[in-house]
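Figure-free illustration: sequence to structure, shown twice.
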Amino acid sequence: MLIGDFLDDIAPLQAVLAQAAGMGISGVLLQVLDPVEENFPFAGAVRFRAPQGGARQTRNAAGLRAAYLARLAERRTALADMGAS
């Protein structure tokens, strides 16, 4: 069982899953997200900080919402596809 938000670079996860599949190992992926990560309720000027350091600022966070949610949907589809193979 692998548990995480899986919002970082997906390549290392793909490599681990490919290696596990090659060894005949099966399991479960469980994506855990904060409601803020799922809904992106931000508006106006916001400074986003990454847990590893670094930050991104915007004056129009609401303008980023559609693109963020589209990328999140793409990530969920990629995770579902990886879990199905």
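We now fold a second protein in the same way, so the two outputs can be compared directly.
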Amino acid sequence: MKKTAQFGLNQWEMSDRIQMDDFNSDNEKIDAALAKRNCQFYTASYIGDGEGERTHTFPAKPVFVLIISVGYFYVLMHNAEKGYNYYAGRAGNYDVTWTEDSVTLSRPNAAPDIANTNGTVYSLFAILNAE
């Protein structure tokens, strides 16, 4: 039976006899490889409330956050004191505060700058530390 180069998984051919032990061995290898990854992906959506501060809480420590809506995108990198946005043909920045499992964006009287325009739907993508 042939094996894959990366993880040594079985590659059956028509002449091979498929056995439960081969199948279970492959599943154990896949499970072990997935367990070694050190990040997880998180997605969510929300509707802006128009306030000058917005906190996003995650199931683990966020290291990268991307927020998008029609014509807008916002990028946050862990421990950066400023986040960056682009919308309506201009770029800007805003204050960012990080905790172990959340990030707060703030800019008084400028909800569009922090992805929080009242009634606007936003999509959020984050990379979380899985350790």
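Summary for the second example: The mean pLDDT is 83.
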